[in-house]
Amino acid sequence: MANFGDVAKSAWVTDDGSDAFCVPMASVIHGFIYNQEIFDDAGVSEPQTVDEFFATLDAIQAAGYTPLDMGTADQWEAATMGFQNIGPNYWKGEEGRLALISGDAKLTDPEYVAALEQLSRWGDYMPSGFQAQTYPDSQNLFTLGQAAIYPAGSWDISLFNQQADFAMGAFKPPVVNAGDECYISDHTDIALGMNAATENADAAKAFLNWVASPEFASLYSNALPGFFSLSDTPVQLDDVLAQEFVDWRGECNSTIRNSYQILSRGEPNLENELWRVSAQVINGDITPEDGAQQLQDGLDSWYTP
Questions:
Q1: 260: which of 26, 145, 268, 284 lies 20 to 30 Å off by Cα?
Q2: How does DSSP classify residue 282?
């Protein structure tokens, strides 16, 4: 377990963080995958700041392309590839996430409203009729070359490699101001544990020790591009696009989705509320301020730090 840091273990620890009960295996990372041919035709490059991001979207739109490929019909993408993708740069990753759990921060604080405010601008750049566009629709639209930028979970890399016949690149969530510290959602996804009552404890421990090893990290990450070992051991990936994602770990601070640990145990479930609110903000049905208030009111109704 010495190969895994606090963020890597965060999904599989007791509430006080004192004990881990699984060996972390893999995470998925959020960012943006883009069509290099469209970028070249529109004369744009990877944006580094939020202002550059929207300038890039404007230029792509002016060149006659759909800039941003996402829909809100299924709702979860709006939260997962929207709010949780760009949000860590606003609430400073783990610092902000843990402050929500401790009660030192609220979802109505300026950093959360600001993340929703950015989302509220996305609809102007999304496909016509995006309110009815599903997740598979978005995947198809991008791989057919009909949209420039796909707000991504790295799990889509393997599918896109199989279906897209154009060169792709990736950029991390843009920061608000040039030079700001950056944060990525490097979300804990898969782990393995041992049944304490097993009759094969020695064999299970031997296997789990191998799962925690550099050998496993390399084998696993290369066998399934887009699912990244959570080990601190650096891994060189054969897949160029996957390597772009994992390289961000050396540039930015990792965090996990802020609704996943502790804060979605009650009703209304914060994760599901983020789906609804994020989609409604993008659709223009509610304001970012109203959305943030609804999220905090829901959490306050059952959660006491």
A1: 284
A2: H
